[in-house]
Amino acid sequence: MTVARILAVLLVGVLGTAVVLTRDTVHQALVFGLFGLVLALVFLLYMAPDAALAQVVVSGLVVPLLIFVTLAELRGRAE
């Protein structure tokens, strides 16, 4: 196992823990997006470019975007 793989997997563990422990929803969505991008890097390091591309699109972009749109809609209704 290379040093890059070890560091990337450790970073995924740290970011996964940070997602769970973050209380603010906006910050949690941002950390989750970063988690998804780092996980895509792990997939690339393990020679799975198709899984990495899907991970970037879904976990790095779509899910955080949907969370932000939902929060904006909920805040708009509250006012």
UniProtKB/TrEMBL annotation:
Topological relation to the membrane, as annotated: Multi-pass membrane protein
Entry keyword set: Cell membrane, Membrane, Transmembrane, Transmembrane helix
Residue ranges constituting the MrpA C-terminal/MbhD domain according to the UniProt record: 11-69
Subcellular location as annotated: Cell membrane
GO CC, one annotated term: plasma membrane
InterPro entries linked to this entry: MrpA_C/MbhD
Pfam entry (one): MbhD
Main location as per UniProt: membrane
Protein name as annotated: MrpA C-terminal/MbhD domain-containing protein
Species this protein is from: Egicoccus halophilus
Organism lineage string: Bacteria, Bacillati, Actinomycetota, Nitriliruptoria, Egicoccales
